[in-house]
Amino acid sequence: DVKVTQSSRYLVKRTGEKVFLECVQDMDHENMFWYRQDPGLGLRLIYFSYDVKMKEKGDIPEGYSVSREKKERFSLILESASTNQTSMYLCASRLRDFLNPYEQYFGPGTRLTVT
Amino acid sequence: GDSVTQMEGPVTLSEEAFLTINCTYTATGYPSLFWYVQYPGEGLQLLLKATKADDKGSNKGFEATYRKETTSFHLEKGSVQVSDSAVYFCVIQGAQKLVFGQGTRLTINP
To answer: How close A106 gets to chain B, by Cα (Å)?
Structure first.
C-alpha cells in the first residue's frame, strides 16, 4: 500500500514564526503536492513538484515556499506564519503513470493553528 | 477556468436510506472525474473514477456516471450505513492538476 506520512497531526505556532511541514512518501512517486483545506472551500493547491528539485506554484502560493531535495520528501515552509494560515494542510503524491495518471494518494493532514 | 460545484451540506440521513450527492463541473475538453472521500481524522482517498463519457465508476456500493451532456457526475448509493459518514469531494482533472469541489459532509444516523 502507498503510504504518505506527515510530520505532525496538530501544530500550534505563533505569528511570525517560521514553520516547516514535512511530507514523506514511500512509493517512489515522482509528483508531490501541498494543499490547504478550509471549510466551504474544498482543497486548494499551494505548490506541487514534478520531481526532485522541481517546483511549481499552485493557486495560492503567497506566503509559502517548498523544498524537494529528495524524491520521497516534500516540505512546505511558512516563512512568517500569520493567523490567516490557520488551516488543515494535506500532502499528496502521485505516480507518473499513464494507466492511472491522475490518482493522488493523500497523507492524514496537519492541522496548523497560528495564534 | 475549470470548476466543480457540488451539493452543499451537511447532509444527514438514516441508515439504509438512498443517497444522492449532486456534482456538476465546468471544464474544457473531457476531463477525468473522481469522487474522493475523507473519513474522520484521515486524509482523502479515492472512492471511484470515470475517465470518459458514459463510464460508470463504482466502489463500496457507491456509483457515479459520467454525463457529458449535462456535465454532471452525481454520487449515489442505494442503502447507506453509519460507516459511510464522511466528507465527499467531487473532483475533476484540470490542466496539470486536480480541481476540487467544496466537499459535502454526510452523517448517517443509526
So the answer is: 5
If we measure between CA atoms, which residue out of A43, A45, A70 comes closest to residue A56?
Answer: A45
Residue A2 CB burial class (10 angstroms; 0-12, 13-18, ≥19): middle
For B103, other C-beta atoms within 10 Å of its C-beta total 25
Give dist(CA B59, CA A6) in Å, integer: 27
Q: Could you give the 3-state DSSP secondary structure of residue B84? A: helix
Rounded CA separation B85/B100 (Å): 19
A25 contacts chain B (CB < 8 A): no
- Encode pLDDT of A6-26 as tens digits: 999 999 999 999 999 999 999
Given a cut of 60, whether residue B85 has pLDDT beyond it is yes
Q: Which three cell numbers stand for residue B5?
A: 460545484
Q: What is the pLDDT of residues A103-112, one digit of tens each?
A: 889 999 999 9
Which residues on neighbouring strands pair with residue A114, listed in sequence order?
A13
Q: Do A43 and B42 touch (CB under 8 A)?
A: no
Which residue ranges in chain A fall short of pLDDT 50?
none
Distance between CA atoms of A39 and A41, rounded to whole angstroms?
6
